[in-house]
Write a structure and sequence with these properties.
Blueprint lengths: L10 H20 L4 H8 L3 H9 L6 H11 L5 H6 L3 H10 L9 H7 L2
């Protein structure tokens, strides 16, 4: 029988669970893994992987840690939460908006002296 854990949790804890799921999803994207591949590596169903990435409170700690290990072997939960992984930092750099657009070849030639 499945239980709905949300009424038993404070809104802050629900937000933390959702944040953890989002970080796992970002790590998977940063590592260029398909969700189905990560789920297969973790030994869970893709539907469970979806729930893990959504921060569903009914997922077990073991499922979350297996999924983390499948996405990024050797990365600790603490490292994930602190976003210390180089692939996450590279993803953040790619997503950052740029204020200056790159110069065209002709503009670069004009500046060459």
């Amino acid at each position: 029988m499945k239980r709905n854990e949300i009424p038993l949790m404070s809104p802050q804890r629900v937000a933390e669970a959702k944040s953890l799921g989002e970080k796992l999803a970002r790590l998977r994207v940063a590592r260029n893994l398909q969700q189905s591949d990560a789920a297969a590596r973790a030994g869970i169903a893709r539907s469970t992987a979806i729930l893990v990435e959504k921060g569903n409170l009914s997922r077990t700690t073991a499922q979350i840690l297996r999924y983390l290990d499948a996405v990024a072997p050797g990365v600790t939960l603490l490292s994930l939460l602190q976003e210390n992984d180089p692939s996450l930092q590279a993803l953040a750099a790619r997503e950052a908006t740029r204020r200056v657009r790159p110069l065209t070849r002709s503009k670069l030639d004009e500046l060459d002296f």
